[in-house]
Automatic annotation (TrEMBL), chain A:
This is Synaptic plasticity regulator PANTS. It is found in: Synaptic cleft. GO terms for cellular component: synaptic cleft. Belongs to the UPF0545 family.
TrEMBL record, chain B:
The keyword Protease applies. It comes from the Eukaryota. Belongs to the peptidase M76 family. GO terms for molecular function: metal ion binding; metalloendopeptidase activity. The gene is EOG090X0CKN. One of its GO terms (biological process) is mitochondrial protein processing. This is Mitochondrial inner membrane protease ATP23. Keywords: Hydrolase, Metal-binding, Metalloprotease, Protease. The keyword Metal-binding applies. It comes from Daphnia pulex.
Amino acid sequence: MSETKETPAKQYVDEKDIPNVWLVRPCESYKDEYSECKSIRGRFHQYFIHGENLDCAQWQTDFDNCMKFRLQKDIPALEQVIKSESKRRYERLAPHYYNDVWKHRDKPPEDWNKPLPPKMQEEYKNTYLDHKAREYKASQT
Amino acid sequence: MSDKPSEAAPVDKEDNWGYDLYPERRGEAARAKWWQIALFGAGQTNVEKTTCERNVYNCFENSPLVKLMYSALKASGCEIDLRRHIACEVCDVSVSGGYDPKLNQIVVCQNVVRNKGIIQGILTHEMIHMFDACRHQLDFKNIHHLACTEIRAANLTHCSFMSAMFQGDASPIRIRKQHAECVKMKALGSVMAVRPDVTKEEALAAIDKVFTKCYNDLEPIGRRIRRNSADMIRAYEEKGNYGYE
């Protein structure tokens, strides 16, 4: 049984049932991102782009919570990590979806794979990339 | 850009759009002059082509950024076929690579780039254009669309501090937030190369109009890579969280 500071809102039989648990990365990733964020070169990079230092504390918090779950099976800690990753996901994807310079497509362009002019196709026969492309296609079936 | 002989087809205004930089794509095989062969060892186009193709394949096998872009494109329904979507060709020496929207092909200039690192940059840059064309209704004739995709490509694949310094957009006493300036200038150069009919002012106006939205749209890489760091690998490792598995 885990020693938790608060009882979890819902009892999970298996941690795989927690919603969005797939968002959680190996704990080492969080430590790595924290080191990068705090490093001198990382700081320079932040200053060059944003004009200021970013707040690195969240990476450390995520690492601590991730390890708490790994070592003590602390479910609320895992939920905190999931919450943090969800926020990160939202913040990263929002500018992409709100970029209205262009309209989104429902499906990919139909002519994505349209055949090349016959002269080009002839030139490409037996080239290195031709062999590699066919090798790959064969490995997919 | 058609594959009819240039005397027969009427010259479309679009034919003047920077595609003269890719002579092999207008149906003329590249032929080196005698003195280029004698003095510079030029004319080894087949060997050069195969070397270029091997480097390209190497990137798809080993480069985290190229692999990330490949996964993102595949997940978006636009899988890359190495033979169909990539071409190694002889180009004008002023360019190192490009994207042909009409044939939907990335062109890598075999006579200009021989270094795997640079090819990685070219592939990633052009695959960002493909990503935008795949997911959005990208009209390359629309100057704002072109500006946006060039801003994104410059943002995600270029403009380290060192390259910004070389370009003149940053210096040891001008660092703060200069990344955005570098991206703007790089995008300007790209837009003007593709659209020689557009003036610098028009191009800058288009870039300024869409800059904020496009500068902050970081998909699918998700971060501005710090050169010589593990950022490329980090971006690759987290791709599953953003739908690019």
